[in-house]
Amino acid sequence: MQNQSHIFATFSRPDLVFERGEGVRLYDDKGEDYIDLTAGIAVNALGHAHPHLVEALKTQAEKIWHLSNLFRIPDQERLADRLCEATFADRVFFTNSGAEAIECAIKTARRYHWAKGSPERINILTFEGAFHGRTLATIAAGGQEKYLEGFGPKAPGFIQLPFDDDKALAGAIDGETAAILIEPIQGEGGVRPVPAAFLRRLREICDENGLLLIYDEIQTGVGRTGKFFAHEWSGAVPDIMAVAKGLGGGFPIGACLATEDAASGMTLGVHGTTFGGNPLAMAVGNAVLDVVLEDGFLAHVRDMSKVLRQHLAELVDNYPDLVESVRGDGLLQGLKAKVPNTDIIAAMREARVLAIGAGDNVVRFAPPLTVTAGELREARARMDAAFASLAAARKTGTGKNGEA
Questions:
Q1: Which residues belong to the active site?
Q2: What distance in Å separates the CA atoms of residue 119 and residue 83, rounded to the nearest whole number?
Q3: With the CA atoms of 197, 203, 206 and 209 taken in that order, what torsion angle do they form, in degrees rounded to the nearest 10?
Q4: Residue 305, Cβ density class (10 Å: 0-12 exposed, 13-18 middle, ≥19 buried)
Q5: What angle do helix axes 373-396 and 297-318 make, rounded to 10 degrees?
Q6: More exposed terminus of the chain, fewer Cβ within 10 Å: N or C?
Q7: What is the span of the domain harbouring residue 109?
């Protein structure tokens, strides 16, 4: 690992520098190609340097970069219209990131109850293993000690519950409960899908108790699972939803979507942003939807999901000492490892395939949604070489340089 000079020492980066990308491939400063099965942590939904996105950004860059929300931004209105037409939502607030979208969702839920005459209803129920961002409120919402440690008192108003536990959920609801917040698939938490039946039960519980159902679809949205949003597989619609990552295809953007009723408390002056919804982001967001909502695109994602799952299942069959199972849905899948997931990720990187870690010792795969079967086959061949090398090294007790 290299010293990152004057940058905060909060990341551990390999000594690897990429100079350009094209589709599913990245090229380092030595000209070597890598198959990117991370997509910038599920961000580069259309791969690197997608021509339609590049053109949209270049065209807008020659017009207006920034206005602030003091003035109308036509592309912002257009993107909001398109998101609402394609989802449950009636209202949209644009942000710069997923954490900001979650913050907006939390404020929207609490303000809803305040406006209805129940200001005591502030508690948000969340689930163990969740990850909702890195701000003080969102680390409290996630509830993971490793993210909370050292940052003072945990922000109040968040109650963590066991994953998929009806009894614990029923016991946690009281007169101070405002909403339930959940990821349809826990990404950072280990690529763990939430059963569709549980999501439907959450919808029923919210309706029965006057609560708002909030989905964190930051990682699972915008086609990642083969539907526009992952919750569509369950049929359980939310009241509020946080979106980011793939919506900008690599450009920073987030959004909080809500029904008219859920957003009724968000009135003039109660929330704001300087950069959120800027013309550059809106141009790219609209370009992303041009592609993702095109006929046949989501069917392609579903087809490639099957190919990826088959390849990962083959690795489980062939290397049972290294990995034990495949999990996840769509093009967000993981391998549950028997050895440190960092060892597998490093071995794959040596073979020029990029993957990322997740909780519960999982190796996570989130390739561009544009990936082809041929590219996945090539990645599978490189991965097989990496797994074979790692298995051999562990069997002989040697490192990658052959040293004991």
A1: 131, 216, 245
A2: 30
A3: -70
A4: buried
A5: 20
A6: C
A7: 64-292
* 91 in the same domain as 31: no
240 contacts 179 by C-beta, under 8 angstroms: yes
The tens digit of pLDDT for each residue in 179-236 reads 999 999 999 899 999 999 999 999 999 999 999 999 999 999 999 999 999 999 999 9
Same domain, 108 and 191: yes
Q: Which residue has the tokens 């939502």?
A: 89
Amino acid at 296: G
CA dist., res. 166 & res. 260, Å (int): 29
The closest of 222, 285, 294 to 81, measured between CA atoms, is 285
pTM given for the model: 0.94
Instruction: Count helices and strands (H / E) in the chain.
Output: 12, 17
- Burial of 81-98, coded b for 16+ CB within 10 Å and e otherwise, reads ebbbeebbbebbbbbbbb
Contact 229, 242 (CB under 8 A): no
Domain end (from 292, 308, 330): 292
Structure tokens at 307: 């190919």
Q: How far apart are CA 90 and CA 111, in angstroms?
A: 17
Assess if residue 320 is contained within a domain. yes
Contacts of 11 (CB under 8 A, 6+ apart): 4
